[in-house]
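Section 3.1: Structural characterization of target chains.
Under the original work plan, the team committed to producing a structural model for every single-chain target entering the pipeline before any wet-lab resources were allocated. The record below documents one such target. The sequence was received from the expression subgroup and is listed exactly as submitted; it comprises 247 residues.
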Amino acid sequence: MTTPSTTTRAEYCVIACAEAWRDNGEVLASPMGTIPSIGARLAKRTFSPDLLLTDGEAMIVGLDGATEGWLPYRQHLAMVTGGRRHVMMGASQLDRFGNQNISCIGDWARPDRQLLGVRGAPVNTLNNPVSYWVPRHSPRVFVPKVDMISGVGYDSAAAAGPSATRYHRIPRVVTNLGVLDFETGDRTMRLASLHPGVTVAEAEEATGFPLVRPDEVPATREPTPEELRLIREVIDPEGLRDGEVPV
């Protein structure tokens, strides 16, 4: 097995992102960000071979980037609304129930800062599984209450009723410090694992609300030698992952 000293923080993040798509079957993987994209390709090459990957526009692509099929917008939307896509989005803010904000900071009527806008976040979160990737875990991102709900969290979905909860699921949140999930009785955020070298105190200090955590927080799993080879030599030989999470 590979030892922690030979695996970079970015590579642990890749592994944690890849695990989001484990056992997903034939669904459309929609990663947003360099490390999630590497993770999706790693998942397809190893434990989730049925994943569908796209070029981000209108084509389904294979492992070598060659076009394998056409995915027109109408068909893409059909997959979205049927729960057959798993997105990994970013977040400017996330709260303890998984509500996400990518729209604005401050009051909506007069924001301090304008961001991307709501975009497709409501449709994504209500119609197919959505995980999140946060390359810089900090209290500015993990806040007690988001300034505006773009992506729907567990409490908001429950308040809206069965039509909102049918396909709603947030499998995991991956950050540069560890992995969080919502496997709790009240669907509040839990510290599921820490990347090697990160302490519980560091994760808690970087989070703006109390995290549920077990007595012993496990470490993010080690990549296998073959996974490391694929990351370093096949999927990301240019080392773009280290630009998103420095060594």
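DSSP finds nine helices and 13 strands in the chain.
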